[in-house]
Amino acid sequence: MKASWYFKPAVLAGLAALALLLAEVARAQAPSGPITAAPAQPVAGTAPNPAPTPPPRTTMLGAWKFNPDDSDDPRKRRQNSQDANGGYGGGRGRMGGGYPGGGHGGYGGRRGGGESDEERQKMRDLFTPARAITLSMTGAEVDLADDRDRKRAFMTDGRKLQKSKDENYQEVAAKFDGNRLVTDEKDPSGNKMSRTFELSYDGRQLYETLHMTTGRSNTPLVIRYVYDIPTPPQTRQ
Fold first, then answer.
1. How many CB atoms are located within 10 Å of the residue 190 CB?
2. Which of 72, 53, 78 is closest to 227 using CA atoms?
3. What does the pLDDT look like over 43-88, one tens digit per residue?
4. Given the DSSP bridges, would you call strands 219-228 and 62-66 parallel, antiparallel or unpaired?
5. How is residue 72 annotated by DSSP?
6. In terms of pTM, does the model score above 0.85?
7. CA spacing 20 to 30 A to 203: which of 15, 53, 67, 236?
8. How far apart are CA 37 and CA 34, in angstroms?
């Protein structure tokens, strides 16, 4: 009994010494200073930050970018108006990705070879919307500049228009109908036409609507082009 009593303290003392030895070894292997997580490494080719959505506008003035998906296809609209025998056709054809094509016997009032090459080219230009436009206003004059270096000056005060030999600059009679800007002009074939510019109800799009006639029967034709507010360029982190 006495030998057993002396043996137990010896075993306990040995275990304690072993524990202290292991603790010293662990401290010797641990790095100096506080233990912190490794800093995050930047990922190569980080995707650009998503562009913020532009705020809505309260006026049609400013820069606009053409939206082909929401815009009418002039060729389909013309076909629809003819199929409807004087109506506007069934449904609004969309442009999708680009211009719907060249001349198909002329878009204006004269057909069967009555149009000159110059008139057909001007009509194609009319049915090829600009990819970017900017509207500004000085007094009673509303200016429209586009990405083809063309400028249209819409005069809303009834002043006498100045005829220009420069096809890239034209003065056009216009008036305000509420918040809409309505022009009074002629198409390249000499037929009466008008355009309407107006802001969408949510202030995020601009509508340019052409009102004209086509064919010998002067069939009404309505074409709408839609423009969006340009988004600022994206930046990378």
1. 11
2. 72
3. 566 666 666 788 999 999 999 999 999 999 987 876 776 555 444 3
4. antiparallel
5. B
6. no
7. 236
8. 10
